[in-house]
């Protein structure tokens, strides 16, 4: 009896389809990924068990760290409008170029008087620039006005209420936070969010 | 690389020497590996780094005094946040009941909140009201932690208030200010 030879099958699998899928997903994730905004001061966000996601639009974040406050608001159109309104309020004329630069600026913490100078710097210089934080005193009232003008701009452009959230450093002493909350309460923003990172409930 | 030679070995002896046809297939394994590695990276960085928010409602400052809800002192628990991640709590009016010092976390504040809210519920038949009073020496994390414990223990009514000089003194006595 002749031996029956089993034909050896190739063990290689066609990877083309898998490769297609993988790259499709990869493209999707790259396109949807938002670049992480670099904090101007090191901020270690405290953990909590709350897991409500922060909205992506119509939101302003006040970053608090090292006794300084930084301001950022979502949306390029909103940022432009805010700068224009703030310029009007403090009698500073911003050029269209500066407006565009400001619209691309994720977070900042300089007094409005030195904002022009800050905008003139390029990205790398800006990172090294020692930002003093937005003045919170009641004389210039800058943080107050930034928040109020942003709320106005969001209302005008998107017809929605702007949410305010505070991103504070764990080690930040309470008086600074109290200042910021007092500023919010002065314009009747009594409901706001604190940004936290997720942590398990079982941990202490 | 990943392909096995299945051509069956040695050719026929003699005959014309034919140039072997080269396979046009490219091994994609490494490419797929890389793609999935990158996908994993992007999934991790996008969905996991999303910040979470904790909603806080503060009492309206301009509210008239007569509009305010009076809560019986017997079911009010006040938390005084001091320095070094320590806090103090008492039930009732300041100075009348001796405050107790405690830490945050599972064994400290959480247990106390659970015990006391049960106690108050049994005694008065009503829920407990918690007032958080952060002192100037406490840090932001303390405030978030206190809020967090309240959320974990499912206490529905709580509020923030300015710390009184009497209470600062209490903290000072315990070396927490």
Automatic annotation (TrEMBL), chain A:
Record's keyword terms, sorted: Cell membrane, Membrane, Protein transport, Transmembrane, Transmembrane helix, Transport
Keyword Protein transport belongs to the record: yes
Annotated compartments: Cell membrane
Primary subcellular site in the record, as a coarse category: membrane
Source species, domain of life: Bacteria
Topology term for the membrane: Single-pass membrane protein; Single-pass type II membrane protein
Pfam families: ExbD
Similarity remark: Belongs to the ExbD/TolR family.
Protein name, entry field: Biopolymer transporter ExbD
Species name: Mucilaginibacter defluvii
From TrEMBL, chain B:
InterPro entries xref list: ExbD
Tagged with keyword Iron-sulfur: no
Coiled-coil annotated spans: none
Ranges that cross the membrane: 28-48
Record region (Disordered): 1-22
Subcellular location(s) of the protein: Cell membrane
UniProt feature, compositional bias: Basic residues: 13-22
Record key words, sorted: Cell membrane, Membrane, Protein transport, Transmembrane, Transmembrane helix, Transport
Annotated membrane topology: Single-pass membrane protein; Single-pass type II membrane protein
Family: Belongs to the ExbD/TolR family.
Protein name: Biopolymer transporter ExbD
Source organism per UniProt: Mucilaginibacter defluvii
């Amino acid at each position: 009896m002749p031996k029956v030879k089993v034909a050896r099958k190739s063990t290689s699998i066609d990877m083309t389809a898998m490769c297609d899928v993988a790259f499709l997903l990869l493209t999707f994730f790259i396109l949807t990924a938002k670049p992480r905004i670099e904090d101007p001061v090191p901020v270690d966000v405290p953990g909590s068990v709350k897991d409500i996601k922060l909205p992506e639009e119509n939101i302003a974040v006040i970053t608090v760290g090292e006794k300084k406050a930084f301001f950022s608001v979502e949306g390029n159109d909103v940022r432009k409008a805010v700068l224009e309104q703030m310029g009007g309020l403090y009698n500073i004329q911003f050029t269209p170029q500066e407006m565009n630069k400001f619209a691309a600026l994720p977070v900042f913490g300089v007094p409005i008087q030195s904002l022009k100078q800050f905008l003139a710097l390029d990205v790398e210089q800006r990172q090294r620039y020692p930002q003093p934080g937005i003045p919170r005193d009641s004389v210039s009232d800058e943080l107050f006005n930034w928040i109020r003008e942003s709320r106005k701009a969001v209302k005008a452009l998107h017809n929605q209420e702007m949410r305010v959230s505070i991103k504070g450093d764990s080690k930040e002493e309470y008086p600074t936070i109290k200042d910021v909350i007092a500023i919010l309460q002065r314009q009747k923003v009594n409901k706001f969010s604190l940004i936290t990172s997720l942590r398990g409930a079982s941990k202490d | 690389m990943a392909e096995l030679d299945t051509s069956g070995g040695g050719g026929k002896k003699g005959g014309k020497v034919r140039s072997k046809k080269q396979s046009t297939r490219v091994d994609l394994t490494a490419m797929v590996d890389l793609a999935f590695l990158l996908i994993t990276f992007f999934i991790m960085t996008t969905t996991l780094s999303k910040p979470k928010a904790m909603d806080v409602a503060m009492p309206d400052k301009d509210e008239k005094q007569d509009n305010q809800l009076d809560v019986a002192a017997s079911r009010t628990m006040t938390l005084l946040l001091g320095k070094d991640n320590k806090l103090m709590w008492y039930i009732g009016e300041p100075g009348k009941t001796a405050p107790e010092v405690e830490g945050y976390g599972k064994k400290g504040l959480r247990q106390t909140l659970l015990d006391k809210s049960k106690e108050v519920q049994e005694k008065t038949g009503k829920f407990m009201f918690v007032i958080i009073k952060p002192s100037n020496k406490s840090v932001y994390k303390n405030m978030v932690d206190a809020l967090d414990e309240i959320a974990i223990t499912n206490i529905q009514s709580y509020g923030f208030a300015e710390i009184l000089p009497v209470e600062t003194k209490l903290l000072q006595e315990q070396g927490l200010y």
